[in-house]
Amino acid sequence: MNIITQLQTVLAMSTCGALMGMGFDTYHVFKRKSRLPVWLVFFFDILFWVGSMFAVFWILVKVNDGIIRFPIFFGMIFGAWLYFLLGSKKYILFLHRVIKFCQWLYRTVLQIIDTLVVRPVLFIYRVILMVLTFLYSMLLMILGFLWKVTRFVTAPFARWGQHLGKKMYGKTTGIWTNWKNWFHSKRKRE
């Protein structure tokens, strides 16, 4: 392996070390904000380190065909050390600002959706419900009025109908009794 490939490998691994430091800080900021259960934090810790290991190995394969030597570890440690020394605090501060901006943006978008979509739809729904309730009560009132007028107009006929019904019932009762008596007397004769 020539010196240029070795320098490219050390530079790539130094970059990987710095990126792993950034990933580590990002992971810890989100882990603190999320308040996950301990078993889930353990699972995500393992997932983070295994993912980092695969990413570093993939970059190593791309840079120098996956050959592992001492300068690779030196480059990773140097890149991580340089990141934690110079950029970690600034990056964490930047990350907190990005998170606050995203939270503000989320709340603002929700307020806009509430103001432009949800409230008008609820207002239209309430107006329609109010109109339908008013129309329903008017319909009930009109039907009630018509029922009272119909009862008033048909009241004399209703009394006459009741009287007629009683007369007819009395006559049919007599017919039915006569019919039963005739049928029983016919059976007795046989």
UniProtKB/TrEMBL annotation:
Keywords: Membrane, Transmembrane, Transmembrane helix. NCBIfam families: spore_yabQ (TIGR02893). The chain crosses the membrane at residues 6-24, 36-61, 67-86, 123-147. InterPro entries: YabQ. It comes from Brevibacillus gelatini. Signal peptide: none annotated. Coiled coil: none annotated. This is Spore cortex biosynthesis protein YabQ. Pfam families: Spore_YabQ (PF09578). The keyword Cell cycle does not apply.
